[in-house]
Amino acid sequence: MVKTPAIRALPPPAVLTEYGLMGSPVPLPGGQGTTWRVGEAVIKPLDMEPSLVQWHGALLSRFDGRYDFRVSVPLQTTAGLWTTNGWMAWRYQPGAHVPRWPLAGRGGVRRERVSGSVSAWRSPATR
């Protein structure tokens, strides 16, 4: 398993360049304290296996542009990679997370209609 650094380290300039990001990283509150916002992206040290980031990208990109629910999708580098130098990036989603557990069942049905394949929802770790 990939471990997240215990200290807040600035993303290196080379990583920002590889993701095509411009601007200064701004620390985001909460979580593990290692996440940064750079423009319309959130960048953080890699905390999962790279194959899972690729899986997230393939799966979550199916929901991009929907208005009935929002997801943040992983971003690829300018070379088409999902991770670089121990970092990963996700599209920034403004707003706050609001748990809506009573709607979870309806979301599951909607998710299957969008994805077209139930097997796509199984992570590589459970296959």
- Per CATH, the architecture is 2-Layer Sandwich
- Count of structural domains: 1
CATH secondary-structure class: Alpha Beta
Q: Give average pLDDT, whole number.
A: 79
Poorly predicted regions: none
Distance between the termini: 17 Å
Major sheet size, sense and barrel closure: 6 strands, antiparallel
CATH fold-type name: Phosphorylase Kinase, domain 1
Instruction: Estimate percent helicity.
Output: 10-25%
Write the layout of secondary structure elements.
Blueprint (H helix, E strand, L loop, with lengths): L12 H6 L7 E2 L8 E3 L2 E5 L4 H11 L13 E2 L7 E2 L2 E5 L12 H12 L12
Antiparallel strand pairs: 1-2, 2-3, 3-6, 4-6, 5-6
Summary tags:
alpha+beta; Phosphorylase Kinase, domain 1; six-stranded antiparallel β-sheet; 127 residues; 23% helix
Folded structure, characterized:
There is one protein chain. This protein has 127 residues and is α+β, with helices and mostly antiparallel strands. 23% of the residues lie in helices and 15% in strands. A hairpin with a 2-residue loop joins strand 2 and strand 3 (41-45). The longest helix has 12 residues, at 104-115. It starts with 12 loop residues before the first helix and ends in a 12-residue tail after the last helix.
